[in-house]
Amino acid sequence: MKHILVLTAILALLEPGMAQMCECTAVAGWQPQGPARAYEPDNLFDYMNGNAEGYLIYRFVSMKGITCKSGENTIVIDISEMTDPEYAYGIFTSTRDPRLSVEKIGMAGQVTQRRAIFAKDKYYVELAANPDKDHTAVLRAFVAVLEKNITGRTNLPDAIAWFPRENLTPNTIRLVPESVLGLRMLKSGYVGQYDFGKAFLVQESSADAAAQVLAKLKERIGQTTSVKIADEAFTATDKYLNGMCVFRKGRFLGGFANLQPGRDVTLEATRLAQGIK
Known about the structure:
This protein is of the alpha+beta class and 277 residues long. Helices cover 25% and strands 33% of the residues. The protein folds into two domains: 148 residues, Protein Transport Mog1p, Chain A; 118 residues, TM1622-like (Protein Transport Mog1p, Chain A, 3-Layer(aba) Sandwich). It has a seven-stranded antiparallel beta sheet, with helices on both faces.
């Protein structure tokens, strides 16, 4: 009866739009330890301390969590809701281990001996196991339950497919939630690392807004050379970003930066622009 009351309290914390949290008892031998957790932007610092800002910049909405226990072993489960799937995937790319492969769990996931993370729809899910030993099997068991109970988007954000694969460094495409390329005018967008430079894509609210940002960027850089890519484009050399090739296609801005002197990437930039749907 006690366990039923605890689980009822957990489910009562969940908003109608929030995916059901995994019940600790869904995996044999595990029970809830302590009360369920619930956080919003205003009090996330109480839980995350110095790490809260890393969640807030990805348009964090809320977090629900529970700790599960089996003997000496514990698993801390936290489910964060972001405003949309792009930002759920974005925070996943910021916390994944770039040295490890990514699995098809929801949109994407990783499972190691003591940690599991994945993004599905607008939710980012984290599991942390203690003590220090191999918890891979039980983490995968909990992940399977969680992934099944969260409904919604499982395909990657559309922009991921727009980056040409030739010369792209694997697993480097990620969402930058603010100041793409270190420029405040490029508010949010995707970047990917190539062997010759860094590609980027930024979506503005309209074609006019994108044209205004492009004009400001040209003014900031100074001397530019117009080239024929998409609606408008230019090449230039920036003091901090080195060689650049930037284009506008409708409401999208994109191109390459950090190019070595003499590197002409107009063909690659054209391919990037053509991929935008």
